[in-house]
Amino acid sequence: MRTLIYTAFVSLDGVVDSPGGGTATEPHRSGGWTYKDIEFRPEAYEIKGREMAEATALMFGRTSYQAFSPVWPDMADFASVKEIPKYVVSTSLGEDALVDNWGDTTILRSLDDVGKVKETDGGPIFIHGSATLARNLGDAGLIDRYHLLVFPVLLGAGKRMFSETDKAKQSLKLVESETYANGITKLVYDVVH
Questions:
Q1: pLDDT tens figures, 110-151
Q2: Which of 11, 25, 57 is nearest to 183 (CA)?
Q3: CATH number for the domain that contains residue 114
Q4: What pTM did the predictor assign?
Q5: Which is nearest to 160 in space by CA: 23, 5, 19?
Q6: How many domains does the chain have?
Q7: Contact present, 60 and 68 (Cβ < 8 Å)
């Protein structure tokens, strides 16, 4: 069974929208909030490098795939994940929308398909961006771990990491945490299944 890990930059009020900046199709009034008014401390981002080294596959929702796929394949920061498999969870994305310079990419049409991928052999699958996908996977009990960098900001509006669906309590086990001088807090939680 593979481990499905959601990794996110998140505001203290749970917003994961546009941490690096908004896009033309999805602008956010506070886009780029991870670097505006927050001192850069490399130690706060150590987990991001570790994720790239540990990832054996990446998973995205359609919107995040369409935002990242034109940019990430040519970025040195993401070279280690260029050739690993990618999964895009979408009911509407066509095969013709997939980029051809970013490793094998498979479109998954349902959460059941995600469950089937989890049942295969292999290492961790990391989900980047993809707020809607994260909410749906969390509600379905498919996420195994959360890697969160919590920023000392309140954004008030934007896509949130967790849904407001009325569901049973879900317990989490803290496995790693650290607070940095710039106010960012790293929280790594395993989902108790």
A1: 999 999 999 999 999 999 989 999 999 999 999 999 999 999
A2: 11
A3: 3.40.430.10
A4: 0.94
A5: 19
A6: 1
A7: yes
